[in-house]
Structures are given as structure tokens and as C-alpha cells.
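Quick check before the chapter quiz. The format below is the same one you will see on the exam, so make sure you can read both the input and the output lines.
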Amino acid sequence: MRIGNSAAVASAISKVRPMERQSNINRWKPPHSRSGANRSVAPSYFTSQITRGDGWTAGLDQRLLQEFHLGLSFGQQKTSYLATASDVSAGRDDKVNSLGVRLSTTILRKGSIAVLYQNSHDTSNVGGYGFSSQQIGFELSYRF
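Here is the expected output.
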């Protein structure tokens, strides 16, 4: 093959390009991160009280082995109960930490299947209001 022969050069390049495209598919991509914060004031379920809340969330999304998507999230929410009348006793403070994990993959081109895990832990300065929760879920979806 001579270098001056443009047909032979074009033929050689066309054989290399599919391999380049294939190597681009297998490249590792860094995780996508997300975060947020919130602050709220709202009426309470208890008479003559309001709630003041502050919270934040953070998460990462990562593609694994070209077939799976892994999502991790963590958050914290603090809620304070405040009296709106002088004859009402308030002062409860709650703090909830939560962790979530989601692993999903595509099926039948338009569908997806996922396994979910959620862990929440609430601590309160008033007895009877704290809790711990662990949930495992399964999700199946299809787009039309």
C-alpha cells in the first residue's frame, strides 16, 4: 500500500474507526453528584405550635458495568416544635438521618427494574417520638 493512494488510506481508516467507537463506549465516567438544602416553617399538627425545619441532602449516581445504575443518597432533617401561644408548652426537637440506595437496569429497551433500600433513624428529645426504619423495595416500570 502506498501513502499516496487515497482509496487505500480511506479503507485503512474505515477499519480503525469502529474500534475507536468501541473503546469510547467502555470508558469510565465519573459519578454525577447532587445536593440540596431546605428551610421551612409550617403549622404543626399540635394545637398552637409551628414547626421549623432545616435539612440537607447529598447523593451520587454512577453507571456500573455499562448495564446498571447505582444511586446513593444521604440526608439529614432537623425539626423544632415552637409554641405560638404563651400557655402552650413546646420544645420538642427531632433529627432524622436517612440513607438510600437504588440499583437499576434497563430491560426490553423501554422498561426498567430496580431494587431499593432505605434506612431512616429519628432521634427526639421527647420520649416516644424516635424511630428507626429499614425498607427494601422492588420497582418495575415500562414506558410507552
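If your answer matched, good. Residues 30-142 form one domain.
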